[in-house]
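G.,

No rush on this.
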Amino acid sequence: MKIAFFDRDGTIIEDYLDHEWTRIERPIFIEGSINTLKEVIKKGYKIILITNQYIINEGYITIDQYHDINNQMINELKVQGVELLDVFYCPHGKDEGCTCIKPETGMIMKAIYKYPEIRLEECFMIGDSIVDIELAINMGIKGFGIGIGSNYKQENIYQLNTIKDLPTYI
């Protein structure tokens, strides 16, 4: 099974400063993200979200607020014809030392455990943060960084201006 591992905040929906998330009540989709998800699915990938949500344990939002935003996003994607295979999130604070916060590999390892038919050599990670690229490197898979500069001159790491550029690379 080919998996496209997508970051959530700043990649599919708008991201905010940590303290601003407290007042966010609904997800705002980034321009082109829904169409890009559709294109990725057409190319034979299933989509799994891999999202750091340290703002839960750091006290900016509650677990219920996280689930509310996430469920709204999932429901809107379904309405638009986009089915996610799964969502993995890390609620741990940045200083908790967990093994799931990106760039640690825990969330992808959980996905592989749950879906043993995943073929990592055919997967990729995309996100708007250095930790997304570092996760791709740590897993040995293709990585796409959206608007984060070209700090990584490694094989299989690509820089995109916007999420709309992704379909031309896969």
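When you get to it, here's the other one too:
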Amino acid sequence: MNPSLLAILAVVLGGAATALQAPTNARMMGAVGSPVNAAFVSFAVGTAALGVLAVVLQVRPDIAASRALPWYAWIGGLYGAIFVVAAAWGVPRLGVATTIILMVAGQLLLSLVLDHFGAMGMPKHPISLGRVAGIGLVIAGVLMVRKF
């Protein structure tokens, strides 16, 4: 299978899992009393699953290489925690579609800036009219999902 096609499929499936994650964690929030508790359960289950997968795949971390990373490379889990708490809290108030599309809009807006400056060591992709228009269409989609 074409590696690019495989990457696209993996990312689409990851996005689909995100859509499932939001209502799942919202349901958990109802049982455990807060979006923070729901996120804690979500991360505990995810950590256990990743631990099993690492053992099965025999993946071992390179401790020396990880020590050399900049500080921001260590806080990816913090972003995930913010995402999960926001989704668990937002879904009962906004619905799944509105919550996810707002999250995608936020991702796109920040990713446009990160790409433009090549932040965090990523390749630069300058802001263009087409990229801004694409994000504008997503934001228009947010308004349409919310209003109709």
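The mean pLDDT is 92. Residues 95-148 form one domain.

Enjoy the weekend,
O.
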